[in-house]
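INFO batch 0412 | record 1 of 1 | parsing
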Amino acid sequence: MTHASPISNDAAPASAPDPAPLSPEHLLTLKRATERAKKIRRAASVATLDGSIMALFTAVCFASAIFDFWSGILLGIALGIVTINSFRGATGLRKLDPAAPRLLALNQAFLAFSIIIYAAIALYNATRTPLLADPQFKQLQDLDPQMAASLQNLTDVVTKALYLGLIAGTVIAQGLTAWYYWSRKKLIDAYLEQTPAWAVELQKHQA
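INFO prediction complete | emitting tokens
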């Protein structure tokens, strides 16, 4: 008589059930956290764009060293530092680092300082060396002193307007941009205060 074979003890255990999905409360928390982080993410995009633009200007400055070595090299180094810090700050914002806004604000101050020094030196050199010192314009002065003087005055006005305008524009543009980045710190602080730690960590990894 044939006996039924017993059930083997080596049978594969039933697979564990999948972990339960996030609860509606968790999903709502994540949604609110994402909304609170929107302005911070937008600032990170702005910083990335700044870094890309500065990288382009850095390359232009180094290329211009062919014509003016020290100005091109020194300004290129300064803009290179700005470029690196812009990307560092952008990464920090995406990681919700409270120190990132300060880095980006100081970076704008450094950029403003570099441009102002460059413009001041260029303005000084331009006014110290009159246009009429050029031999070709010296001939014009001999032929028509009144026209030469008018041309010199026009050149002085345009040069001063150009560099003083650059200085004023830099103070306004970089000042406002520095304020913009600095104001993001309040947003990060509020985000970290109002968002559960688990949601913060999840969004940091998603950055």
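INFO post-check: The chain has a mean pLDDT of 84.
INFO record closed
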